[in-house]
Write a structure and sequence with these properties.
The complex is a heterodimer of chains A (112) and B (114). With 112 residues, chain A is mostly beta strands. In chain A, 0% of the residues lie in helices and 52% in strands. A five-stranded antiparallel sheet of chain A has the order 1-3-8-7-6, with no helix packed on it. Chain B has no helices and eleven strands. In chain B, strands 2, 4, 5, 6, 9, 10 and 11 form a seven-stranded mixed sheet that branches. Chain B starts with a strand and ends with a strand. Classes of the chains: A mainly beta (112), B mainly beta (114).
Chain lengths: 112, 114
């Protein structure tokens, strides 16, 4: 069975602080992709960053970065120098080729 | 705008009525997906098409639900004899057809069943 867990329900930070979101994906698959999506109050899901399971090198894309720990199946996603516009629900979503399996999401509130 | 579009954006209907939603994917994308999202939850997969072929359906998709993608372009999702439990946001997404490619989502159709 596959299971994706976003243990943090809500995170509140002050603008310019870094925010780290946790995602644990338990699966027997050795090869998969994991995606992060953002859902702002307007409701439309926006793709942020993609990560595969076989490359442990950390990645950075603008203010977003990944940290993958294979031993714990943990994908940590960091927003550096948060801004008020980063306030949204963030979803971790592994893919099994065609289907995204979304976690419950973490609500991030960035206060000015 | 060359993104995924959905119509209508909002639909209010009475229990027992039929409703149909439309999704227009990004034009060069051969895969099209439907998801359902209820309040406070992440989206849940319903079904997907590769070109015009419907390749997978979730157990969430009861017999009252049917989806089509004629000619591999736009798709429709029909719910017959709606129930209050069908109230949700119905999301459509499209992608180029390999697993590493991200899915692009439309704005969704919010269904309210009274």
């Amino acid at each position: 069975a596959q299971k994706v867990t976003q243990a943090q329900t809500e995170i509140s930070v002050v603008e310019k602080e870094d925010v780290t979101l946790d995602c644990v994906y338990e699966t027997r698959d050795t090869t998969y992709y994991l995606f992060w999506y953002k859902q702002p109050p307007s409701g439309e899901l926006v793709f942020l960053i993609r990560r595969n399971s076989f490359d442990e090198q950390n990645e950075i894309s603008g203010r977003y970065s990944w940290n993958f720990q294979k031993s714990t199946s943990s994908f940590n996603f960091t927003i550096t120098a948060s801004q008020v516009v980063d306030s949204a629900v963030y979803f971790c979503a592994p893919s099994n080729d065609y289907k995204l399996s979304f976690g419950a999401g973490t609500t991030v509130t960035v206060r000015a | 705008d060359t993104g995924v579009s959905q119509d209508p954006r909002h639909k209010i209907t009475k229990r027992g009525q039929n409703v149909t939603f439309r999704c227009d994917p990004i034009s060069e994308h051969n895969r099209l997906y439907w998801y359902r999202q209820t309040l406070g939850q992440g989206p849940e997969f319903l079904t997907y098409f590769q070109n015009e072929a419907q390749l997978e359906k979730s157990r969430l998709l009861s017999d009252r639900f049917s989806a089509e993608r004629p000619k591999g372009s736009f798709s429709t999702l029909e719910i017959q004899r709606t129930e209050q439990g069908d109230s949700a946001m119905y999301l459509c997404a499209s992608s180029l057809g390999i697993s590493r490619n991200e899915q692009f989502f439309g704005p969704g159709t919010r269904l309210t069943v009274l």
